[in-house]
Amino acid sequence: MFLDSYVKIGNFFKFYLKMKKIIKIFIMLMGLSFITIASAEGYCDTTGASENDNGVITFSGNPIMANCSFAPDEYIVTIYKIGLCSQEPARPTFSTVYDVSSCEDLINSPNGQVVNIAAGEELVLSDVSKPPNGTYNYGYILMSNNFGFKAKKQFTNTMHTFLNGGSGNYCWTLAGQNDNSEQVGAWTNPSPLVQCGGADGSAETYYEKLDVFDGDTVSFQMAAFAVGNGTLSIELTTDANKLLVNSLNTADRVFGKQTFTTPVEVKPSTTLFTISFDVNQSATMWMYQDAGRANEYQVYAIGSGPFSLFMSVE
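Given the sequence above, the corresponding structure tokens read:
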């Protein structure tokens, strides 16, 4: 059933940069390795919602959720390609494929490389090469649209597992798979995606596919928006035809193109390429206020929320 009192959690993947903490993936061009550095301070500050210094969230009434997102314990992405481009790559449309023929691949991994960008550790990856020396005005990234994350969050409110599940001051992810377009529509009772209860609950890895950017307008691309050193545009596409998708539940790739404000120059001395992911607000609550119980909420999922990325060379 559709719930009239359901609080929609903003637009999934409303890409913007909350420059509180940045998670970086360093590609060591000479050592051919990745290093991820994470700092996981959450951020939830909006009408009807706040987060204290200990990461505990308080809701009141029907909160405006667009800015109430927080850092997950893990955020898993799969990267297929990263490249630098001397000419502007063509973005995909419904009838034309994306074109990266002017680009030099830094990573070309047909099977994808899985990276946990919310964990600080050194990861040795394959298929890494240093681009030719030169000046590059653009970059691109090709990723899976299936994002995995694990989160457990504490609240001052009583939170209920939709609709007839457990209740408590904590909620955590359960192992499962969902499409982000499922925010609107029928919800399974009880939710198979989240559990609310006591402090002893243990989070599991939950996967969510990004199959639409805005469920209200059914958009499969995002116009360029500001990130560090430039702007980034995003499209949903497929590995099979490399076209912009035109329907829900069909995408399997995310194509991102960055236009650099300051061109990237690869020199003989260049040893470090940086992709910065801001995942400080990459988990959100799918929930609504429980009728008849003030400041108590029915929770269907801890869904994936907004994050940003940008590229630079050192």
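The chain has a mean pLDDT of 80. Try to locate this feature in the token string yourself.
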